[in-house]
DNA sequence: GGTCATCGTGAGAGCGCTCTCACAGTCACG
DNA sequence: CGTGACTGTGAGAGCGCTCTCACGATGACC
């Protein structure tokens, strides 16, 4: 035969006939219901194997009113911002965790308001069992809207409002560990290049910087703080301004590796040796950090783990609706390289 | 009421009742069938609006035997290799094109053999209407397998075998334009750092280098050719070897920006000025190229467009099965920056 | 005015599955 | 031995939709 129906596969009915049992029994075996006799189970399993039976998801969904799929929403700006592969890594974590549960990942990448409306309609229609939102620029009304409609949502990254489950990396703690490391390395004037303050990671990393200085009894000097936009060029320009304003700085904590690379360029242009004159620590531990010269110390984030944890939280929320929102903060760890060698 | 069923929404039946027509008529209106009277159509549209009716995909799929979804398969190594955001960009293109057709994107990221088997089972079951495979390291038996089963497949990047539709970027042409640009800039000894030769982009870019030299009547000097692995460190080491072996080189075409950055580091270490002593052109036009110092010329690839074109091809193949495979090669364009200023 | 195509519409079957309910069989208990 | 609990199984309804077929109404044509 030519076109052996792609959608082909056998049906429950056929399996039942071959195994000499009812459809109901086959369904029980397939779905792992324990109240099935030994003989029947064996017969069904043999028949399933012989026919290469795979359940039809549509038929199942129709009656269970579950889709066995999870929507992952990645709004426009998020995919762009990062030079390092943040986005693929979260997806990998999510994909992993979903595969274990035999659930499907439906990816939605709205661009522009029209698209966002479409996405919202799609989600509101209940076409997915739950929603994971990977958003790093806060202020998205989507999660709250969906939750109001009774749809489970988990956000990746700290959302601005409360009331929604989320998983975040310990940005504050990570920043703190970087700054502490610089201080312990004998640095006296530790500057920082922060990220945009309307983005939670930007704000939280700066908070970690402040906190650590104050714990260490160091005064916070405004001249040692610059805010940039998480880009390479932004980091370069910020470092240049810092050098001009505070020529005596001897260390800098940069809130992203990409900015860190830019900062490195500015330091070289200003003929400051790294790490001899100025130590530098980045954030993200992207591949760039390792291959910079000198190799750049950086705060590593468990990004895949974030995806996995988001998924776990979501599945729990789907299975036990109505529970209060939860949050999970994942530890970072500092990877020390040459750029922050002690004085 | 408390739990206002998330999956709620109205049914065709209810819409039909409200509009005073049959279910069939509602179905026709919803699916854009033109043979419906003006009055009936208006009544249905009003009812749909009033009830906020959204068709149930599962029910529809069950009868049409279409899923209105497309699977995108990204095998393990592909997501990792690239420092620049190749992978999110293809996805964005695909997502875009699918959204226009109201189709869903199901993302599959198998890791390891067990996962790949699961993916294959899923696809073979016909749970998606077609498959897009984004693979850059060739030699995957999946596309051929699926096609044999009568499932539409389109591959992103040139696959090693024939017989499968694919969309690729004109790697050869892009490399040629880069090399031509260097020659026209007055460079006499143009070297290259190629990518792995078992990856089609690696091989094709090197072919473009060869081709252009021969067209220009230049001898191909084996000492001017190094193969690396698309990483920063690989590029650096390769450049170092080139300088040692052919100290008189005055230009280098590097098959990826990440390697190009590495090469830049090696050139600086060897105290060769860019572009005065040595000109350099990369490939990918990633954000890194722009922010390098000096800013690096690079071959830009239309990656989103690749995703869109893959989707178009796939949808055509789904709608008209049995047509012969097609291939689409997308043009690149050279972005000239400081690193390759003429002598 | 009869014949035939065309158009708009409705009735009804059925996609493949789950799940409730009923029922026969088995066993423990009084 | 009757009663009740429990276990394994099957019959059958029905999830929401599409699509075929049939049918009445309309208009074109001879």
Could you explain the architecture of this structure?
Two copies of one chain form a homodimer. By secondary structure, the first copy, chain A, is of the alpha/beta class. Chain A has helices spanning 12-19, 23-30, 38-51, 57-64, 76-81, 86-100, 112-124, 142-148, 171-184, 200-215, 232-245, 257-269, 287-291, 303-319, and strands at residues 69-73, 104-108, 130-134, 152-156, 165-169, 190-194, 225-227, 251-254, 279-284, 297-300, 327-330, 333-335. Chain A is elongated.
The average pLDDT of chain A is: 90
Element-level helix/strand string of chain A? HHHHEHHEHEHEEHEHEHEHEHEHEE
The number of distinct helices of chain A, counting runs of at least 4 residues, comes to 14
Largest interface: A-B, 62 and 62 residues
Radius of gyration of chain A: 26 Å
The level of helicity of chain A is 40-55%
CATH topology of the largest domain in chain A: Rossmann fold
C-alpha termini separation of chain A: 77 Å
Low-pLDDT runs of 5+ residues of chain A are: 1-7
């Amino acid at each position: 035969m030519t076109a052996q129906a792609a959608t082909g596969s056998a049906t429950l009915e056929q399996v039942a006939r071959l195994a000499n049992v009812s459809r109901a029994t086959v369904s029980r075996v397939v779905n792992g219901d324990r109240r099935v006799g030994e003989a029947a189970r064996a017969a069904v399993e043999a028949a399933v194997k012989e026919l290469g039976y795979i359940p039809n998801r549509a038929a199942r969904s129709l009656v269970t009113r579950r889709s066995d799929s999870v929507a992952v929403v990645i709004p426009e700006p998020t995919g762009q911002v990062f030079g390092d592969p943040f986005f693929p890594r979260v997806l990998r974590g999510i994909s992993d965790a979903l595969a274990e549960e035999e659930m499907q990942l439906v990816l939605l990448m709205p661009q522009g308001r029209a698209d966002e409306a479409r996405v919202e309609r799609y989600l509101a229609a209940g076409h997915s069992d739950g929603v994971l939102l990977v958003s790093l620029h806060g202020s998205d009304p989507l999660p709250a809207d969906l939750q109001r409609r009774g749809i489970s949502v988990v956000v990746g990254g700290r959302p601005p409002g409360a009331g929604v489950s989320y998983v975040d990396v310990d940005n504050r703690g990570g920043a703190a560990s970087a700054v502490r490391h610089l201080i312990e390395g004998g640095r006296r004037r530790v500057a920082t290049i922060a990220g945009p303050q309307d983005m939670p990671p930007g704000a939280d990393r700066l908070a970690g910087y402040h906190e650590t200085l104050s714990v260490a009894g160091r005064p916070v000097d405004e001249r040692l703080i610059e805010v940039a936009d998480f880009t390479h060029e932004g980091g370069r320009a910020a470092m240049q301004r810092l050098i001009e304003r505070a020529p005596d700085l001897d260390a800098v904590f940069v809130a992203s590796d990409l900015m860190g690379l830019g900062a490195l360029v500015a330091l070289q242009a200003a003929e400051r040796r790294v790490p001899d004159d100025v130590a530098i620590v980045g954030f993200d531990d992207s591949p760039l950090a390792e291959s910079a010269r000198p190799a750049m110390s950086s705060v590593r984030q468990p990004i895949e783990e974030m995806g996995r944890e988001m998924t776990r939280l979501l599945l729990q929320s789907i299975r036990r609706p109505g529970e209060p929102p939860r949050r999970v903060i994942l530890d970072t760890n500092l990877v020390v390289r040459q750029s922050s060698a002690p004085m």
